[in-house]
Amino acid sequence: MTRKVKGTKKPSLTGALTIKEKQRLAGEVFRRRNLDGLDLRGANLSDARFENVSLRGADFTDANLTGAAFHWCDLRQADFSGARLDGNSFTRSTVRGARGLDSERMSYLADCGATLDDEPPVAALD
Known about the structure:
- The chain has one domain: E3 ubiquitin-protein ligase SopA (Pectate Lyase C-like).
- By secondary structure, the chain is mostly loops.
- It has 2 helices and 3 strands.
């Protein structure tokens, strides 16, 4: 018999997330979604995977992005102020106009595969 543990419901990401919901995003996989402008301040997105996701203007302020992978994502105008970045992949993901990134962090993103110019990801959302 399988029991559902109270409080394990995954957030829908269709509206504002609670602090608790933001802490349950570690290791989640997001595919072909439009999450433009989503407030992910302080979220635990460690080891999360984003594939062909639009995150334009998303707020990652103080988020834990350790080990997070972004493949074919649009991160233009996203805010990375205070975000924890380490062990990431930004394959074919655009970060043009992103905030909270000094030259060292921009260089890190480029080394992780991010596109720094205005070129949108090739496999953009339909």
